[in-house]
């Protein structure tokens, strides 16, 4: 099969491309910058998701499409980018795929698109959320576009990844950057609440199964587990053997702090570790309902995921051996090899979260 992919140079996209190549599929990527792509393994179309001509070239003759591109950030300076990439990009790419008659369209949403909710859990029938937080609002708007295509007959499958951790993150996205900041001692105060956590490799396996026709359905949740923030920090402590002292406060009590940090961020040139959006997610997140479809992909233990992520952060020079602690000791699980379609950035690569291609 020929599978077209947007966001293939990002975290989840790169791992999914690797899973597709292992299955023997041909992959065509839409990429603004192909400098980190091994073009002997994939075809590349130059452009980004807001370019209708590039989108048409991407899906021409493709059997399936993975639309994984977007901007994932709670940075208050990037509201316009969020709407352009997440909403306009979805309009352009899904519209092009539908006009081309692409046989299977997988749109990567997020559990956050279903927040906030008054229900105790979320499932495939959950309504789209009505958050005013810019990132969640942009993903909810993209979700509505995808659902409208599905409702009018397009072969659209929706996936809802949890917050993803794991090794080999080409652009050091939001969750791995937060883990790095925790290990560096930059986040001693935490909101209560929690969030679903999953391994990027498990969600990539789900997408590979969907695109290859091994799993069928209208909506799927990325494998993972709901952890309270206390449980998450306890897992990082277990992975590293470090004390990592922290204070936990009710998330809504931290809302003013988050909003103040967002205002400061508009003039402060370096990324702050405190953001209103991240606090808001912890306050509003609920578990995925038991029995929600995951494509029969089991969720690997969170401790394994965190260990692999920390070991990778150390191996790429983003944290020191002291900061990584026990996660660097021999005998622990070893991170998977780098996704084969990417040459990837080397140690110390700069942080960025956008994947417009």
Strand-helix topology:
Blueprint (H helix, E strand, L loop, with lengths): L1 E5 L4 H12 L3 E6 L11 E4 L5 H8 L4 E4 L2 E2 L7 H22 L3 E5 L25 H18 L4 E5 L2 E3 L8 H10 L5 E3 L2 E6 H12 L7 E3 L3 E4 H12 L6 E3 L5 H11 L10 H9 L17 H14 L5 H4 L29 E2 L2
Parallel strand pairs: 1-2, 1-4, 2-3, 4-6, 6-7, 7-11, 8-10, 9-13
Antiparallel strand pairs: 5-14, 10-12
Helix pairs in contact: 1-6, 2-3, 3-4, 7-10, 8-9
- Quaternary state of the chains: single chain
What would the principal axes of the Cα set say about the shape? globular
Structural class: alpha/beta
Summarize the main sheet: 7 strands, parallel
Helix proportion: 25-40%
Ranges with pLDDT <50 over ≥5 residues? 344-354
Q: Which CATH architecture would you pick? A: 3-Layer(aba) Sandwich
N-to-C SSE string, H for helix and E for strand: EHEEHEEHEHEEHEEHEEHEHHHHE
Tags for this entry?
three-stranded mixed beta sheet; alpha/beta; seven-stranded parallel beta sheet; Rossmann fold; 357 residues; 11 helices; 14 strands; globular
């Amino acid at each position: 099969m020929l599978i077209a992919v947007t966001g293939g140079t990002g975290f989840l996209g790169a791992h999914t491309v690797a899973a597709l190549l292992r299955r023997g599929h041909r992959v065509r990527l839409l990429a603004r910058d192909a400098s980190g792509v091994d073009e002997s393994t994939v075809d590349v179309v130059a452009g980004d998701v807001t370019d209708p001509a590039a989108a048409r070239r991407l899906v021409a003759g493709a059997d399936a499409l993975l639309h994984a591109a977007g901007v994932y950030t709670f940075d208050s300076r990037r509201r316009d980018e969020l709407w352009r990439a997440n909403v306009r990009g979805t309009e352009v790419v899904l519209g092009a795929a539908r006009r081309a008659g692409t046989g299977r369209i997988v749109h990567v949403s997020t559990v956050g698109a279903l927040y906030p909710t008054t229900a105790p859990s979320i499932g495939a029938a959950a309504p789209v959320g009505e958050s005013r937080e810019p990132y969640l609002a942009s993903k909810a708007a993209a979700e509505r576009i995808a659902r409208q295509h599905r409702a009018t007959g397009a072969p659209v499958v929706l996936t809802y990844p949890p917050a993803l951790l794991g090794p080999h993150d080409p652009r050091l996205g939001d969750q791995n950057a937060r883990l790095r900041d925790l290990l560096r001692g930059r986040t001693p105060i935490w909101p209560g609440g929690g969030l679903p956590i999953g391994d990027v490799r498990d969600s990539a396996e789900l997408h590979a199964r969907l695109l290859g026709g091994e799993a069928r359905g209208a909506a799927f949740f990325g494998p993972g587990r709901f952890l309270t923030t206390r449980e998450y920090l306890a897992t990082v402590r277990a992975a590293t053997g470090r004390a990592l002292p922290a204070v936990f406060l009710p998330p809504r009590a931290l809302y003013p702090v988050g909003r103040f940090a967002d205002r400061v961020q508009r003039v402060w040139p370096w990324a702050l570790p405190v953001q209103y959006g991240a606090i808001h997610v912890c306050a509003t997140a609920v578990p995925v309902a038991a029995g929600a479809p995951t494509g029969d992909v089991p969720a690997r233990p969170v401790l394994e995921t965190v260990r692999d992520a920390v070991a990778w952060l150390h191996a790429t020079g983003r944290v020191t051996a002291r900061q990584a602690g026990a996660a660097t000791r021999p005998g622990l699980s070893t991170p998977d090899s780098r996704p084969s379609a990417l040459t990837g950035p080397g140690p110390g690569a700069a942080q960025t979260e956008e994947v417009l291609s």
